[in-house]
């Protein structure tokens, strides 16, 4: 889907919201803090999705590139996309160290600006990134993702997603922070979680699931890790 030229009301996705992923300190400590994105976890995801040599894979909001690197190790062609230049620079270095510079193309673009000028993707993955967009713009991003995938292609979405009863929001947010926050230097702190809840755009599962269906996906599996984290494996409807 192309919306061109971008109208003046279009969302500026390069402006950081919440955690500043252009801050070199945040980038340098990211792999230590983000326990969901270890090499082992990303390798397991590559296997779970069935990514193999010759596939075209897009990683939207690739961060430090751990998933992109594991996908590229299969022999897949990978497009790693992020709005943060420092994140991309860090991911490029990791890819070079793994001898994969020629297998991963890095793009300084985002959900709302990446133009996929290559073979339609077999797999699109986005982890811990879509919640940076407000809901209306998530919907635009999902339409664009559907347009980049081949018919029957797979879209994997892992993110903070609220799946508690709305009236219980305070207890679930507080339990999440008490369980997940680490002391300074050991991972994401209470302050980081507070920033996430206050300034970023995590939404409810029932909103996100309806958005996925309305934008051309069939949800095949839903893995709720907790009342604040969900992974969806979706397939693009053949007709969209
Ligand atoms: C929490 S990190 C997740 C990185 C990686 N996917 C992972 O699972 O570890 C979020 C990433 O999304 C990027 N991001 C934020 N808004 C974005 C957008 N509109 N389009 C693409 N990437 C975006 C940030 O720059 C950051 O690198």
What does it look like?
This protein has one domain: Vaccinia Virus protein VP39 (Rossmann fold). Helices cover 36% and strands 23% of the residues. α5 links the parallel β4 and β5. The longest helix is centred in the middle third of the chain and has 14 residues. The protein is globular. Bound molecules: S-adenosylmethionine.
The beta-strand count equals: 8
By oligomeric state, this entry counts as single chain
DSSP helix count? Answer: 8
CATH topology (level 3) name? Rossmann fold
Provide key terms for this protein:
globular; alpha/beta; Rossmann fold; single chain; Methyltransf_25; 240 residues; 36% helix; Class I SAM-dependent methyltransferase; transferase; SAM-dependent_MTases_sf; binds S-adenosylmethionine
């Amino acid at each position: 889907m192309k919306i061109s030229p971008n109208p003046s009301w279009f969302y500026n996705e390069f402006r950081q919201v919440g955690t500043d992923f252009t801050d070199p300190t945040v980038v340098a400590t990211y792999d230590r803090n983000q326990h969901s994105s270890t090499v082992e976890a990303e390798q397991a995801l590559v296997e779970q999705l069935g990514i193999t040599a010759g596939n075209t894979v897009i990683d939207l909001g690739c961060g430090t590139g751990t998933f992109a690197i594991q996908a590229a190790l299969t022999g897949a062609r990978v497009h790693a996309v992020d709005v943060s230049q420092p994140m991309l620079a860090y991911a490029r270095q990791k890819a070079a160290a793994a001898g994969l510079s020629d297998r991963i193309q890095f793009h300084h673009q985002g959900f709302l600006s990446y133009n996929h000028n290559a073979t339609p993707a077999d797999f699109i993955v986005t982890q811990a990134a879509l919640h940076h967009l407000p809901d209306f713009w998530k919907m635009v991003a999902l339409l664009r993702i559907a347009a980049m995938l081949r018919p029957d292609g797979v879209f994997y979405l892992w993110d903070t997603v609220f799946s508690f009863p709305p009236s219980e929001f305070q207890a679930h947010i507080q339990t999440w922070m008490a369980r997940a926050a680490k002391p300074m230097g050991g991972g994401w702190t209470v302050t980081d979680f507070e920033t996430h809840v206050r300034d970023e755009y995590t939404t409810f599962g029932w909103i996100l699931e309806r958005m996925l269906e309305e934008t051309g996906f069939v949800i095949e599996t839903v893995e709720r890790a907790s009342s604040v984290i969900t992974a969806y494996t979706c397939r693009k409807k053949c007709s969209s």
